## 1
Amino acid sequence: MSSLFPVPQLSPRVTEQGTQLFLENVSLNGLAKQFGTPLYVYSQAQLLADWAAWQYPEDQVPERNIHVCYAVKACSNLSVLRLFAERGAFFDTVSEGEIARALAAGAPANRVVFSGVAKSEREITFALAQGIFCFNAESAAELERLNEIALRMGKRAPISLRVNPDVDAKTHPYISTGLRGNKFGIAHTDALAVYQRAASLPGLDVIGIDYHIGSQITELSPFLDAQNRLFELVRQLRAVGIELTHIDLGGGLGVRYRDETPPAPRELIEQSLKGLRDAGFAHDLLFEPGRSLVANSCVLLTQVEYLKHNDDKNFAIVDAGMNDFIRPALYEAWVGVENCTVHDDVPAQVYDVVGPVCESSDWLALDRSLNVKQGDVLAVLSAGAYGFSMSSNYNTRTRPAEVLVDGADARVIRRREVLTELWAHEV
Ligand code: LLP
């Protein structure tokens, strides 16, 4: 399996056995044959390993609770949510739908955090009725709405304010959220006044502070810069008599797609704890990881429909398109692509791996050296985060099935859509 770019390793649970790639103890070619392609396949062992990497021994933090709030948007499949829910996860959600999903997967409402810049009346009413843990409010206007609805319902809304710390997360601009020009959160400079207003509203219970500065962050420094900015505010709030019970340091921890070396969750937690201790803070600590809990557990299987040679370009045309996996088209994201069959008799050639959708941006990988034949199944690696959850029906294409592998077992956790479902709501 040569590649023009060195691939330091396959996905953690993908191994070469004989002439085939396996995920855990299951042949990927076998799965493609059994369930069809395109197909999202998750490794339960890796999901659990990634969950375990975020756990911090309780006896080492007697002074506070640490809650890991899985960001549902990264991969919202009920079976994946359930795996985390059963292990005590909190959930970071951004819509009524995500809250309902977390509840359907067995999460108690008091482990749900509700983020997002545009929470509607209906969504707030729903979340309040359920009794969620905290609203991560993103504007002064949202606080007024939260207060009104809570009073109307005879409740108090637990709130945290998302503060925009104005730090550079050093990631792709489309997934950077903590800079002054972003739509997210409340400006650091306005935060104190907005907190004071919130504290004066009888329908609100001010319990926390949060930020989220971006995604696929591969260095510690942006997190630490943002934390320090947040801690300044916590001190200022204290000085005016506003005591919080938790600090939510958001998500954003990156993963290895190619050669990145992101800090381990443990390192981030330890550095954050150090910062809190140095500041003399005993607040509970929340994190909202999405990608780092699911990205590396999954491969997207896709079959090569045709090989085509145009002028000086070779194309491997596959059956997964940007509607199935949009990250390359949207962010020019680099993902590993490997042939599930190891051929010694096929010479390597450099290909663009492109999909069936009628858009020039419909590619999965560019300039990759592959030993590939028509009919081969390719594995797109590290497809678990923002993969299926960002899929669509563009070009009237049914979305893929999802399969969960556990050892030698594989079971469908979302069946493939059928065409009639795609126009079932139309007249
Ligand atoms: N918390 C909040 C408030 C968020 O907005 C996000 C992600 C997360 C947590 C989880 O971030 P993570 O740990 O996954 O980086 N579709 C893009 C990523 C968008 C992230 C949006 N917000 C991608 O495919 O790269």
## 2
Amino acid sequence: MQVSVEARQHAQALLDFIDQSPSPWHAVENVANQLKAHGFKNLRENEPWQFKKGGKYFVIRDGGSIIAFALGQAALAESGFRILGAHTDSPGLRLKPKAAYSTEGLAQLGVEVYGGPILATFTDRDLSLAGRVVIHTEQGLQSRLIRIDQAVARLPNLAIHMNREVNEKGLVLNKQTGLPLIFGHAANSDTAKQLLNETLAGKLAIPASLIVSWDLAFYDIQKGSFWGLEQEFIADSQLDNLASCHAGLEALLSSETPQATAICALFDHEEVGSESATGAGGSFLLDVIERICHSTGLTQEDKLRSFANSFFISADMAHAFHPNHAGSYEPCHHVHVNHGPVIKTNANQRYSTNAVTAARFIQLCDKAGAPYQQYTHRTDLGCGSTIGPIMAAQLGIATVDVGNPMWAMHSIRESAGVLDHAAMIAVLKQHFLA
Ligand code: ZN
């Protein structure tokens, strides 16, 4: 399998992006930093917005979601928006507010399950903490990003000698009693709490008494890697869906002067249903679009005309064929790693794709010289969903659900293909140019 230098560079950039983004809040900060470096201006929701023709901007809502846009050269009512949507969050373990306690001298951390991770994959990994901590400062409460770089916590497996059927029945972990992590020694729960608070405070270089609250996620400190005899695969945490966020960002950054207004919208909370102030089910994207229309002087009718001329690509990862589990897939819709972006279809609108939007995406693939594949879930298995149907219902904009093929979705260590990432970037560039 031929892997071009360019494809490898894109894949390496993705792995670097993920390694710098151990939480949704870090992902948003990294996206914002890249946007700023490319001349995008940071707007704030509580300030008035004024635009320059052809200007490039971004806005963050509550740290976990970010919308970037480049105003198009053509009239908005006629050209509409070219939107790419993806999500910044990944399933995993989150630290409870009063997390630390002691069990027979071992310091433990209570965790909540965020979304639907494959819990067994979180055992025996080098886990650390990342996210945001709200602290007292002289200027009032402030939110600070934090990342402990060392492995500080672990969920050791029970030895097979006490779990004799683990290979026959799979690893079953009770979410309340089986998941608390071990993070040190503490004679009692007060000491355990102090140990945790001092670790966080030390990282922030503040006294522990200034910590008020946190949103903290566990992440695996192992960096992303290439694998396969020709190094044609990648492995990392959070490929679902930081790979699509990264592809959207790369495509937007390379679209110098788009004709239609290009939007890259990256949302938190997809893994828990998107119903939040920052999630795709909230008002964020519509608010931003309304303000773009208002600031550029569009009438209500022109705004609705612009919607009718728009196209939304919802990019999230797809289930690649696993040769050891062929029976889990719809036989005529196997999609393969390194064989190109996948169009996802579900007649019951778990995916937003229809014949017209699928054809439009196929046209973009053709223009980009990229292959494409088509996926449907087995008819007798429940199909997952994405932000696609949510956005389509909210905006009334033509929408397609796509994504790159991957293995082990929602494992702490997922896999995908080097070639597919470069192909997705190329197709999304065509989307933003069209
Ligand atoms: Zn996803």
## 3
Amino acid sequence: MRFINAKFIKSASQKSEFLNDELPQVAIVGRSNVGKSSLINTLTNNNKLAKTSSTPGRTRLVNYFNIDNKFYLVDLPGYGYHKASKGIANTWDKIMNDYFTDNEKLKLVLLLLDSRVLTTELDKQMMDYLFDKQIPALIVLTKVDKISRSELNLQIDKLSKELRYSKDRIVATSALKKSGVEKIGAILDEYIK
Ligand code: GTP
Ligand code: MG
């Protein structure tokens, strides 16, 4: 699929505000600052759609973007940044857990990993969590413009061994080069009918 008309619909700060209409949903998760909002802008070819920032923790709400009236791309708050403040961490856990629990509209999660860092402990926890909930996840590497081709291949080898995950299901993306969009589109076709 291609992403033609993308429109911001709403931000939700709690369960009662979540969208639950007929459209399927594809959610984007990952550490704070990994490039979730940037990926939304790359996919939709609109640099102003999702707010990006070099300050971690920019996205604190569940943001819904309608894509061609076919599905919602859902930008979720990043993890790993709220460690210092227990109060915020609890709110984060609650909104994420609410979003992922009994969400029949959620068809796929794009789990973003920085191509230079790969997995952190929190990413592993996130993967285990999604696995337990039987939510399918696609691994998306971000910021691949910051490493060389050969480094990228090494990183993909390493990750695929570590996670016992097929290499052709790891998608390399760059917001700077606008790369990886077609591959993500092709995979979304499998999950959104
Ligand atoms: P939170 O909302 O805080 O969780 O962050 P996020 O995951 O939405 O990250 P965001 O998209 O705001 O990007 C964080 C920073 O990384 C910004 O300064 C982006 O410009 C930069 N960035 C994101 N993707 C890429 C990329 O592919 N290449 C490069 N070079 N920089 C990127
Ligand atoms: Mg963001």
